[in-house]
Amino acid sequence: MLDENRLFSADSASRSIAARLYEKVRDLPIISPHGHTDPRWFAEDTAFPDPAALLIQPDHYIFRMLYSQGVSLESLGVPQVDGGQKADPREVWRIFARHYYLFRGTPTRLWLDYAFANQFGLQERLGPENADQFYDAISAKLQTPEFRPRALFDSFKIQVLATTDSPLDSLEFHQKIKDSDWKGRVIPTFRPDPVVDADFIGFLDNIRKLGEITGENIGTYKGYLNALRSRRAFFKSMGATATDHGHPTALTADLDADTAASLYGRILSGRSVPEEQEIFRAQMLTEMAGMSVEDGLTMQLHPGSIRNHNQVVYDKFGRDKGADIPSPTDYVRGLRPLLNKYGNDSRLTLILFTLDETSYSRELAPLAGHYPALRLGPPWWFHDSPEGMMRFREQATETAGFYNTVGFNDDTRAFLSIPARHDVARRVDCAFLGRLVAEHRLEEAEAFEVIEDLTVNLVKKAYKL
């Protein structure tokens, strides 16, 4: 199923150069600095229960496509808010197999074919006629020691893996990993959205819990900021090197202390309006940048997603169920207050992501090509695809170069997709560099340096790993 030259150019000259570059990086370790895997997997190291629970139910790339074609989330056993999840896993797998053709031409198909072939030795194309054969083969593998989470982590050659965690999280599973004799490096990432976004469900209760955990007086703006500093310090003590911020927009603000405190009081009253909530989120991005200057945590901004667009799905299944939709994002005006305050400070590393590809050459590359604090994150979410990765290189490199980018991160909840996603990224970067060499725009020796930087060195530097 997997051609050795997949994703390389059809032009023979470019393809041969890309293949040589790929040989240099194909077996380099995986650095996974941003994702959503569950630290409990590695803390407890128990077998994954079944193929559906491993490959389908945690992966919104899969079930959102099935849902778009009329397959109910209930039939797939996607967990519900009320705890319901009654679908038979074998039947879930059969439904998936019957609809596998839907993924033709998508990155999901590339990732799944890679996992089936390289991890389970399944060389046929999945379909309804061999669904049970696949299910039984995968189930049998999952019961072996080699397919426990820690063993897979090691076999995937993962050097470090970062999870994404609520600021209220005790990080008990991270502590359990640290206390074990396993040498795998799994680190947390500080995601403060539940306590900085007044539109977040349970926001006021979250603020109260923040005060209880830290012992700070969250009734004042100063106490609230001190509580956030306290949690950041705790995360850093547990190995965190980065924060992450999933705001609806890239708007930032730089309010004076009294105005910020007054706004916080309005937010804390529970009577704030959407416009005030947006300004508060904007102010908190600038506050977080200042804290990153203080404590050295790399800052990531993932804006531009209208989350939980499908209210019916959200009410029954909760967050992160495939109904988040991209929206246009203004970076130039939105980020200006933050950048005027901290953009020239080399102690800050702010990695920008986008779901708005029109901003690559117009806004993001020019910004990152100027401000010392800015770096461009890789194609994210809907654009984590061969076409999306190539568009990113073509539109950003001419202005920002390679060295204002940060390599690749997989941003996944689906553990088995990690090596497949990194393989796709390495191949696309090799294809891009191979074309530059073939067009005599880059020497081949330079391309060998660049591909290693794109694979491991830039990500280590940006995330301080």
Describe the structure.
- This protein is of the alpha/beta class and 465 residues long.
- It has 2 domains: 12-46 and 147-462, Alpha-Beta Barrel (TIM Barrel), CATH 3.20.20; 47-146, uronate isomerase, domain 2, chain A.
- It has 20 helices and 9 strands.
- The strands form 3 sheets. Strands 4-5-8-9 form a 4-stranded parallel β-sheet, covered by helices on one side.
- Helix 1 (12-25) crosses helix 19 and helix 18 (386-400) crosses helix 19 (418-438).
- The chain starts with 11 loop residues before the first helix and ends with a helix.
Quick rundown:
This protein is an alpha/beta fold and 465 residues long. It folds into two domains: 12-46 and 147-462, Metal-dependent hydrolases (TIM Barrel); 47-146, uronate isomerase, domain 2, chain A (Orthogonal Bundle).
Unreliably modeled segments = none
The termini sit apart by 35 Å
Q: How many β-strands, per DSSP?
A: 9
Largest sheet: 4 strands, parallel
CATH topology of the largest domain: TIM Barrel
- How many helical elements? 20
Sum up the structure in keywords.
465 residues, alpha/beta, TIM Barrel, uronate isomerase, domain 2, chain A, 2 domains, four-stranded parallel beta sheet, 20 helices
Secondary-structure blueprint of this entry?
Elements: H1 12-25, E1 30-32, H2 39-44, H3 51-56, H4 60-68, H5 89-98, H6 107-120, H7 131-142, H8 149-155, E2 158-162, H9 172-179, E3 186-187, H10 193-196, H11 203-214, H12 221-237, E4 242-245, H13 257-269, H14 274-295, E5 298-301, E6 305-306, H15 311-317, E7 325-326, H16 336-342, E8 350-352, H17 359-368, E9 374-376, H18 386-400, H19 418-438, H20 444-462
Parallel strand pairs: 1-2, 2-3, 4-5, 5-8, 8-9
Antiparallel strand pairs: 6-7
Helix pairs in contact: 1-19, 1-20, 6-19, 11-12, 13-14, 14-16, 17-18, 18-19, 19-20
